[in-house]
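dude i think i finally got it to work??
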Amino acid sequence: MLDIRPDIKLKIWKNVKEWLVVLLFFVLVNCLLIQPFKIPSGSMTPTLLVGDFLLVNKYLYGYSNESFRIGTFTFPLPKIEKRLFGNKLPERGEVVVFRNEKDRNLNYIKRIIGLPGDKIQLIDGVVHINDKPCPLEDAGEYSGYEDDEFVIFKKYIETLPNGYRHAIIKKQRLGEASLDNTQAYFVPAGCYFMMGDNRDNSQDSRVSEAVGFVPFQDIMGRAECIFFSSSCTLFEVFKWPFSMRFERFFTPIR
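look at this
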């Protein structure tokens, strides 16, 4: 029979406790302060690229049940009816991570376009908020890969009613894409209207059956900055030295 001496048991227990403390610290930081996310798709191009790693501020808007979520796992806590310890509400133009109500296993990242009570409609590719168009300024072209195909996009600077300016891209001409002309959406109380910056390749609040309006309680936090960026996967070790996008490291998200 295996006999483990008391001093060995104490050493093992000490090591286990140290790892438990590290794990607890990791969980608390991810749930309450800052959580890293990786961008898996091009729906937020050119603001965010596939392979960008970013930090999300979890405490800015306060805490809901979705705040206590790491990856696709949400800690089974009692229902939080109102966000706890929040010091601000989401604003137009901010980029946020949220849990998709239509598929609870997915985390999405999009830009807030519509606030509670807003009327949102796209007419010929131009966003109209409360019947007023958001100006689009021609910003030339943007080139990149989409679905392994090299594409030259048209780039615009969009200005929201609060003065927030950000870049968007379009693969098709204004008015020609399937989501360039929509019905009028009336954002319910406590919800937000989200859109991707890659307007012709984003499944967002314009697609009611897939995303729709996003409740405040489902927002996990605001994206703050890109801390790492690579055009290859973690398994493509031989490509690492050539794939790093150093110019994107530690850039704020606007």
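Residues 10-118+187-252 form a domain with the Umud Fragment, subunit A fold (CATH 2.10.109.10).
im so relieved honestly
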